[in-house]
Amino acid sequence: MRNRIIESGGEVHFETRMERLIIDGDEVCGIVTADGREFTGPVILATGHSARDVYYMLHENGVELESKGIAVGVRLEHPQQLIDSIQYHNPEGRGKYLPAAEYSFVTQVKGRGVYSFCMCPGGFIVPAMTDAAQSVVKRHVAQRPHVALCQFGAGDRSAAGGFRTPARRMGRAGRVEIPAAVRGAGAAVRR
Prior knowledge:
Radius of gyration: 21 Å
Number of strands: 7
């Protein structure tokens, strides 16, 4: 993707934080970085789900935001030995020839999708958030991280605690995630 952007005349800047948008009337015409550099021209915001600071900045600048559905989740960790023994129906686990077992679930509960996501068979956990209070980075090597999620629709008042505006909805999501992380991980949560 990066090569395609560059081939098309675009630029990609790593370790560069956008501090604010340059807005002329109702048009975004560039950005200012944290180190004071200005870039003018078309702006593509590929923010991802955890860039709440960017969405708040857009809202504060009068950019119209549209609510969308969200999924609120909790991180689960299970011993790999337990997963292997259940999935392979063998109390001894997988043995030396079978790969690490995985699992997933998808169901409906009262009309909401409930599902698992990101069954990671090792590797690295890379925090992708803009608020350090949302970082859960402690990991036990013998554990397999997994995430269980529940869907909430854009018009679902209960998901946003009665807040239908995107900015208030994002704030509500954060107020749900942090206490859940604290309860689920205790000292593993960095606040």
